[in-house]
Amino acid sequence: MMFMLIALFRSAILYVFIIFTVRIMGKRQIGELQPAELVVTIMLSEILVIPMQDSKIPLINTIIPVLLVVGLEILVSVLSLKSVKFRSALQGNSLLVIRNGILDQAQLKRLRFSTDDLLEALRKKDVFDISKVEYAMVETDGSLSVLLKPEEENPTRADFKMHAPDNGIPCVVVSDGQIIESDFKDCGMTPERLMQILTEKGLKASCIMLMTADKAGNLQIIEKEPKK
Amino acid sequence: MKRLIIAITFILLAVLLAVGGYFVLKNTGETLCTLLQEVESAAEAGDKETGKEKIRAVSDYWEKRQGFVQALVDHSETDELELQLRLLKKSAESEDPTEWIEYCREAVSRCEHMTNSEKLLFGNLF
Description:
Chain A is α+β, with helices and mostly antiparallel strands. Helices cover about 45% and strands about 15% of the residues of chain A.
């Protein structure tokens, strides 16, 4: 029984500790993993799992490496921001693999990228013909960025000199019955205006699942489904 | 700048915990070994009263430091050392100093092993 309680408390402590340290590391580490960040993430998960299962290992043996790894990771990311040389040494550089529709075979070899890998990455970008590509670049995280030849690009409003109104980003005004006032200023909403809209529509905020608004005054309201 | 300060704080905290832990363990191990060796010397000299007094001193010292030591090293190692120290404490009730010597030697070897395993040595590193 005691071992189970110890395991329970140790897991809770480690959970809080890792959430805190990952939060400190920043969002970038979670969203787009560079090679070094991938290594850090795997290391952290390994370091934390072992003492969760084995109560004979003191927690300090986990806390010290986690603090050190996270500290070094933040330090490296700060240095990467400050120094271009350090960044390129750590993360490498983006490399052009297609130029004017022509494959750069030397770069492909250097990247150990097969033509199949390249074609697959292109297809994921909805490009099925290499000759349509002006430039293709393998980014430092291994993804492929593609710029099509001008004649292959889709026309935009700018090409036709068409004006598009800027409605801003639709922001959430009510979510699951809760009024989200923090986003009000992004869509020009006020509590009074919201109350007016709700009164006009004969609705209560607590009956709304989702309500969004934009700067132009466009509203989208999804009411909650009645409870069965 | 804020992130840099956090990074340096984390690294310093890790280093302080590691170095501090090492010295706490080293001092505890050395003091415990010294006390145990004093018990052994008293037992070898046949001085039972001093021996019993020293055994009490060993028990008291271990009770005070056990929490710290347990937080720093593998718990199985401290469990083994604690078992030896309990046996030594129990043996103090008997009037046979040869038993004390046996338990003292075993406890000293466990204590030395515990502190040696934390030393920054080539073998321990790899």
